[in-house]
Amino acid sequence: MSVRLQDEAFEPGALLTVFSEGRTKTGAIVSFTGIARADQGDATILELEAYPGFTEAEIGKIAAEAETRFSLHDLMVVHRTGKIAPGEAVVFVATAAAHRREAFEAADFLMDYLKSRAPFWKKEHGATGAQWIEPTARDRSDVARWD
Amino acid sequence: MAKVLLFGPLRDLAGWREREIEASDLASLRALIANDDPVLGEALTGKGVQVAVDQAITRAETALTARSEVAFLPPMSGG
Question: What is the ipTM of this complex?
Answer without folding.
Answer: 0.92
